[in-house]
Amino acid sequence: MADTSKKKDLSLISVAESAKFYTSLCLGTTAILSVFAFLFLIPFVVDPSISSLMADFDPEPVTCVVTQHVYAEGLRNCSWASCREGCTKEATRCHQMHVNYSKIPFREWSYTNRSVEWDIVNTKIFINAEGCGYPPSVNCTEFAKQYGYHTRGTPFPCYYSKVYPEMVIVRYSWDDTLRQLILSLAIPNLLFAASIGVLSYWYCPGCGRSCHKYMHRFPAEDEEHFNDTTY
């Protein structure tokens, strides 16, 4: 009977050690992936979101009209683009658009029966704050068809920057931008902190003893009161 119970204890210990090993492996992988994910999100989400929030775009869409649309090819001719598919490479084909915009809200545009005085004339417009993105969310061909070519001159909603009034974009949402920024900062860092915290608790015996030592360095309230009364 004693041998049987000892074997059961050993099997339970081995199962616990195996579970701890594979859990530690998963936590270590999670910590490493969290670091790489955070580094990946910095140029693609964090930095653009911060730039968008600092530009302080008006959340109420105003009225824009495309005044000029140029399709160009070649690196020399594509020094800038209203839309780029991919944010890390130079564009060899580009759509360059200029617009006039009025600060009249777009929802009130149809009710405007007077001649409009444009607040900003012939300024560049971009698809978003970065001027680029990745399919399927960003399709420059569809963007050009929607706002350029034969639709040029048709009013459409756009957003202007209160900090840089000549900066105009087509897509913007303050709530979505803030949500993306918070999630991109919180999720990788929380996963990394939780993984490292559990691994440190399991495999760093000195951490527990150190905390225990610091807790005993300070006397309890009763001991302080007793020492004071004795003197």
Automatic annotation (TrEMBL):
Q: What is the name of the protein in this document?
A: Protein tipE
The organism named in the record is Cryptolaemus montrouzieri
In terms of InterPro entries, this protein maps to: TipE
Q: What keywords would UniProt list here?
A: Membrane, Transmembrane, Transmembrane helix
Q: Does the keyword Transmembrane helix apply?
A: yes
Pfam families hit by this protein: TipE
Q: Which residues cross the membrane?
A: 21-46, 181-203
